[in-house]
Amino acid sequence: MWPAADLRRLRTCAGPHHAPEGIGHSAPVSALVQLKRHVTQLKSCAACPAMIGPVVTGLPVLSPVLLIGQAPGVKEGPAGKPFAWTAGKTMFGWFAQLGLTEDAFRERVYMAAVCRCFPGKAAKGGGDRVPDAGEIERCSRHLARELELLRPRLVIPVGKLAIAQLVPDAAQLVDVVGQRRRVERHGAAFDVIALPHPSGASTWHRMEPGKTLLARALAELGRHEAWRSLLAPAPTAARAAEVSS
Q1: What's the Cα-to-Cα distance from 92 to each of 79, 84, 86, 118, 131, rounded to whole Å?
Q2: Rounded to whole angstroms, how far apart are CA atoms 112 and 117?
Q3: CA geometry: angle at 11 spanning 6 and 17, to 5°?
Q4: Which of 117, 161, 173, 208 fits a disulfide with 51 by CB distance 3.0 to 4.6 angstroms?
Q5: Burial tier of 105 (Cβ tally within 10 Å: 0-12, 13-18, 19+)
Q6: pTM of the entire structure?
Q7: Is 157 helix (H, G, I), strand (E, B) or coil?
Q8: Beta strands 65-69 and 181-185: pairing type?
Q9: What's the number of domains the chain is made of?
Q10: Which residues neighbour 136 within 8 Å (Cβ) at sequence distance 6 or greater?
């Protein structure tokens, strides 16, 4: 079963929320309800005119683990989910080695990103455009809110852009992949275990030292108590009520 602390979060409040007009008092709203509202609002974001919609986001699931990608590619928008193409197949293959199928991961881990819309293709080189500083800043408010609501115990940034948001002192992947770091952001303290981007265009994770460092990072993930909590059967509604009572 999932740890009691995780089950209780299904019933706990992430902060005060004022009731609609006419009720006459303030009523707390569960973290799950607030997260669902956040995702609904997120999907209507149009703050970056150069970005190409739709907004791509994972399921609104309360989880002790948060994954942060870089930005969706051209395939993710039509698919309606992050990591929906070849990079995702590689990444979910890594997680399958640790006991979670793609479907189980998507159901049990909140999937975020530095930017939530497709940046478009780069002017040169044929790859995707790297979001500019303004786009990253405007989108960062979404991640800040997610950290406040989820208060994860483990965050997995995938790729250099995602890693830079949490570990800005890591100049290269070799400085952070394969390690566990403690980070505080937006009132939440959590462990960070970074992964290289699984893009087929990158050879870093298939050659040394990347291959060995990736293996170390996956081993760190597999040992982490928050990851291990994901491997237990999902709690039933009856069991969640029993634990929270």
Answers
A1: 16, 10, 10, 21, 24
A2: 11
A3: 125
A4: 117
A5: buried
A6: 0.84
A7: strand
A8: unpaired
A9: 1
A10: 114, 115, 161, 165
Mean pLDDT, range 115-137, rounded to an integer: 94
Condensed to tens digits (0 to 9), the pLDDT of residues 144-153 reads 999 999 999 9
Supply the pLDDT for residue 203. Answer: 94
Q: What is the mean pLDDT of residues 79-100?
A: 98
- Which residue in the block uniquely carries the two structure tokens 């989820």? 150
Residue 19 lies in a domain: no
Domain of residue 175, residue span: 4-12+28-244
Q: Is 201 among the domain residues? A: yes
Tell me: the pLDDT tens digits for 219-237? 999 999 999 999 987 655 4
Residue 142 maps to a domain: yes
Q: Dihedrals φ, ψ of 74, to 5°?
A: -65, -25
The CATH number for 202's domain is 3.40.470.10
